[in-house]
Amino acid sequence: MTQVYENYWKITLAYTDIHGKKFRNSLEIILNFIDEHPEGFSFIDEDSEGKTNYKILASVLQEKYQINIVSARKIINQFVKLGFINCELKTYTYEAKQFLNAQTDLRRQLLFSRIVYKNSKFNASVTNQSEDQSEPKSINFLVKTLEKNGTLSTDDINGLMITDIKNYPKGYLEKNELNEAKSRAKKIGFEDRKYNQLSHFENIISKLYDIQIEKGVIKFKETTEDQIETKPDNTQRDSYMQKIYKDQLKEESEIFYKKPKCMVEELAYPTLIASHIKPYIESDEDEEFDPNNGLLLSRNIDSLFDLNYISFDNEGKIILSKKLSEDVKEHINDFCINKKFINEKRQEYLEYHRENLK
Fold this sequence. Notes:
Layout: H1 2-6, H2 21-36, H3 53-65, H4 69-82, H5 95-100, H6 105-119, H7 138-149, E1 151-153, H8 154-161, H9 175-187, H10 190-193, H11 195-207, E2 211-214, E3 217-220, E4 228-229, H12 239-257, E5 272-276, H13 285-288, E6 294-297, H14 299-306, E7 310-312, E8 318-320, H15 326-332, H16 344-354
Parallel strand pairs: 4-5
Antiparallel strand pairs: 1-3, 2-3, 5-6, 7-8
């Protein structure tokens, strides 16, 4: 019984406000340190009096915030557990700097949700990876269980927190499995013993995009008719990542236009398409839901773009297929992607798209 109790999702946060200065400033210090010390946590610099990089980084945070060394290490490990940085302090997710540079709280929340959904490893630490990369991650497992069951209670969360996700290769708990898990949690008094851990976990859940906690019940937010659509295809897409991807494009358009508009026609159609530049089926894991690999388009423009009858150069100017009729060419000849939406990463995807122009 004690063995089951000790095997749980271990997560406490040094800072709980993802929009706050301490959370962001700490992350920035860590990312800059990794950039300057790519050799990792165990490397010992000749000028550091025998200190490892891990100890040096902890000392930097200790001095910055006037805290003890244990608290400084807790700051570092929270970003490992959440998935912003990898164990051994050698690398970090490419979205971590996007998180730091986010212009709005909504964009920051969307990026936070992407990062923890893809990467969170609650039993990991700087010195312990703990979960194989191919295994479902903690928040990923939670969200998929929520999708499967519709709602989750605090008792359900207790059950999830003592679940060894390696034993569930499908990536979620069925209702009967969830009931068994929460019964085990009650039997060992998990909530009373680990109230602080539960509180921190629920705090993370409350930060996730499109998820709410209402009167102790966790559920997806109820939404009106979705203005942003994606093209149907034969691929099985991750529904939560797809939701974030669509709404990242929507938010990007809203920043400039104050409402969702086609990034080419600059018109607020009732329905817009979250269109991939590099086709989803041809994209790798990092490209599938990268918002830079997307454009918010009207149905007509999306159809031409998706079928490679049009493309765009690196300045956003439209390129027309010779196979288009002259009246269509004349109608769309002056269209372009607003330069506000052109960045280096999008230019790379557009270069790929141009290679397939008909």
